[in-house]
Design a protein that fits this description.
The structure is a single chain. The chain is mainly alpha-helical and 131 residues long. The chain folds into two domains: 64 residues, Winged helix-like DNA-binding domain superfamily/Winged helix DNA-binding domain (Arc Repressor Mutant, subunit A, Orthogonal Bundle), CATH 1.10.10; 46 residues, no CATH class. It has a two-stranded antiparallel sheet. Helix 1 packs across helix 3 and helix 2 crosses helix 3. The radius of gyration is 16 Å and the shape is elongated. It starts with 13 loop residues before the first helix and ends with a helix.
Length: 131
């Protein structure tokens, strides 16, 4: 069983979705430092993804310092895995730019976009508290 929830959707590479779901689980406290992360085989089997894709997920998360391999234990969430504000802003920048460009293409103004972001923030927080 995965330590976080995810429903893979078409249109975005599976490894990106799993990396994002893992980061979301760490940011929300669903996964904490020292918590076990599924093996590549378990991740592949549970999500019905290619083992190479599962390997790519683990490699990406390790390279970002979010996972570490502990000999004799397996892969776990790294100490200090939660990102600093500067790291978070840097990681979000490409998506923020994409969001702004798309909003402008739809002729939305900044206030409307901010309202939509705030509403989504509240919905997401409420949904996480219910779980």
């Amino acid at each position: 069983m995965l330590p976080f929830t995810i429903q893979l959707k078409p249109g975005t590479p599976a490894y990106e979705q799993v990396v994002y779901a893992t980061k979301r689980a760490i940011a929300s406290g669903q996964l904490a430092a020292g918590d076990a992360f599924p093996s590549i085989r378990a991740l592949s089997k549970e999500l019905k993804i290619n083992p190479n894709t599962a390997q790519k997920v683990v490699t990406q998360l390790k390279s970002e310092g979010l996972l570490v391999v502990m000999p004799g234990i397996g892969t776990v969430v790294a100490e200090g895995a939660s990102t600093s504000r500067q790291q978070a802003e840097s990681a979000l920048q490409p998506r923020l730019e994409q969001l702004v460009v798309e909003a402008r293409q739809m002729d939305l103004d900044c206030d409307t976009l901010l309202h939509l972001v705030q509403r989504e923030w509240q919905t997401t927080i409420s949904n996480q508290k219910k779980k």
